[in-house]
């Protein structure tokens, strides 16, 4: 079976993309529709899924490329986030009419790569422009690698981070001597003590998190805690359950202790979490860095953002995903179009300090170490989270907005609400995972490589 057969099986089984949910970083649909060819109406056809502040920043980056390359035209199309985007990308690539450059979450990469939908980065010409492994955050570059081949160029890392109310933290005695950050915390005892100090300082809750009807956020939080103790919950490309029962029970027990002890509410909507944190009724917020632009709009509200400290394990862990630049497979793409695509990718990397204004940590180290980025606060404060990043386990069914996140996160929600204990939750997690590990994948890495 060649890559064409793999792509047909992928599409014949619904693309493996019958996925649900939404990621706050890029969630609003603009263009939908799952069919239709992409004509070569410009020198570079670019598909992405960015709206709101991210969308505005991407437009600035596209315009910077146009200005620097006046002889090269770019046509950018914004499509619906999630299933519509990835399905249309698969259909267009299989029919020989893909964009020249697209955006993909690295958590979605295993299936896209195994389906033969992507050009290996080594074949895109970006290496000749200096786009090489040593110039990227290692965790992101590693996640861009599938079966030993790099299939994407990471643009950012967007981690799950710890927001805190600066005024409450000062009153609680949690700020360092300079007053510009939190005192060091190491281990769950320090962390719990900090949440208690926030309550003692006048907050209704030590911390809040979007829980109710938000399984993706619950999964991100759980994955961060559990990953401090154990490895991925599924391995072997998602075919084997690899849960460490003791570590998982400990993780569930820790999270439940936060809600049962009144330090966090056991159920709370996203809007409720935002309201409590922005009005000073919660000291900490557990969320993705993409929420930073929202809180900047709250007049008089002073907050900061840092990576989570080590909780149950010896080292800090940050759950994360990454937006990445891909070149979809197109055997008829000319050498000239490929060269223009490579220049466009390099330009977006070089201009990614603009991208960082949305909260994302640039994966391109020259930008990450630049004054243009290091002048940005609070973004510079949680760069380390990109280096301790843990992504969804590699499998055809995992990734941003997937049914996997919804299913697994739902079990975490039951624990936080006190409707399931740690031991029963582990059993439920194993049952949830079995439906995925025993399902026939649409393609395998072995097929993709033959």
Q: Sheet with the most strands?
A: 7 strands, mixed
Shape: globular
Strand content: 5-15%
- The secondary-structure class comes to alpha/beta
**Overall pLDDT score:** 90
Helices, by number, come to 19
Strand segment tally:
16
Helix content: 25-40%
Unreliable runs? 5-38, 445-450
Question: How far is it from the N-terminal to the C-terminal residue, by CA?
Answer: 7 Å
Radius of gyration: 22 Å
What does this molecule look like?
The protein is of the alpha/beta class. Helices cover 40% and strands 14% of the residues. The chain has 19 helices and 16 strands. The protein has helices at residues 3-12, 52-68, 83-94, 109-114, 138-143, 166-171, 188-200, 215-226, 245-260, 270-278, 292-296, 335-350, 352-355, 365-368, 371-374, 384-387, 403-416, 422-437, 445-449; strands spanning 44-48, 74-78, 101-105, 145-146, 149-150, 153-154, 156-165, 205-208, 234-235, 240-241, 282-288, 303-306, 318-321, 323-326, 361-362, 389-390. Strands 7, 8, 11, 12, 13, 15 and 16 form a seven-stranded mixed beta sheet that branches. Strands 2-1-3-14-6 form a five-stranded mixed beta sheet. Strand 9 (234-235) and strand 10 (240-241) form a beta hairpin. Helix 8 packs across helix 17 and helix 9 crosses helix 18. It is globular. The model is unreliable at 5-38 and 445-450 (pLDDT under 50).
């Amino acid at each position: 079976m060649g890559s064409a057969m793999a792509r047909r099986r992928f599409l014949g089984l619904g693309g493996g993309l019958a996925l649900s949910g939404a990621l706050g970083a890029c969630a609003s649909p603009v263009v939908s529709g799952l069919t239709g060819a992409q004509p070569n109406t410009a020198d570079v056809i670019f598909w992405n899924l960015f709206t709101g502040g991210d969308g505005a920043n991407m437009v600035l980056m596209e315009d910077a490329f146009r200005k620097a390359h006046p002889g090269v035209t770019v046509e950018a199309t914004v499509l619906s986030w999630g299933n519509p985007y990835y399905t249309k990308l698969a259909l267009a690539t299989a029919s020989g009419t893909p964009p020249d450059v697209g955006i993909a979450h690295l958590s979605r990469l295993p299936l896209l790569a195994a389906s033969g939908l992507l050009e290996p980065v080594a074949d895109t010409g970006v290496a000749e422009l200096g786009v090489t492994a040593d110039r990227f955050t290692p965790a992101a570059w590693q996640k861009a690698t599938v079966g030993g081949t790099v299939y994407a160029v990471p643009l950012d890392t967007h981690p799950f981070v710890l927001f805190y109310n600066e005024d409450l933290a000062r009153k609680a005695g949690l700020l360092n001597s300079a007053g510009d950050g939190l005192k060091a915390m190491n281990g769950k005892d320090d962390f719990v003590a900090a949440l208690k100090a926030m309550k003692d300082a006048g907050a209704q809750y030590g911390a809040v998190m979007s829980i109710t009807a938000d399984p993706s956020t619950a999964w991100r939080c759980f994955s961060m805690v559990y990953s401090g103790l154990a490895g991925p919950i599924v391995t072997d490309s998602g075919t084997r359950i690899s849960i460490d029962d003791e570590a998982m029970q400990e993780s569930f027990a820790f999270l439940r202790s936060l809600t049962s002890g009144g330090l966090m509410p056991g159920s709370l909507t996203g809007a409720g979490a935002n309201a409590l944190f922005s009005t000073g009724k919660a000291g900490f917020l557990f969320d993705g860095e993409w929420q930073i632009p929202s809180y900047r709009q709250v007049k008089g509200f002073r907050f900061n953002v840092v990576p989570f400290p080590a909780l149950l394990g010896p080292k800090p862990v940050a759950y994360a995903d990454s937006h990445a630049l891909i070149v979809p497979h197109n055997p008829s793409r000319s050498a000239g179009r490929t060269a223009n695509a490579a220049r466009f990718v390099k330009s977006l990397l070089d201009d990614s300090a603009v991208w960082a204004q949305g909260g994302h940590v640039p994966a391109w180290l020259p930008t990450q170490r630049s004054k243009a980025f290091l002048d940005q606060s609070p973004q510079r404060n949680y760069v380390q989270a990109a280096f301790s990043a843990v992504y969804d386990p590699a499998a055809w069914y995992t990734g941003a907005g997937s049914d996997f996140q919804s299913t697994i996160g739902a079990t975490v929600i039951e624990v936080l609400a006190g409707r399931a204990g740690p031991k029963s939750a582990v059993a439920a997690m194993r049952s949830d995972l079995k439906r995925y590990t025993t399902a026939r994948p649409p393609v395998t890495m072995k097929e993709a490589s033959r």
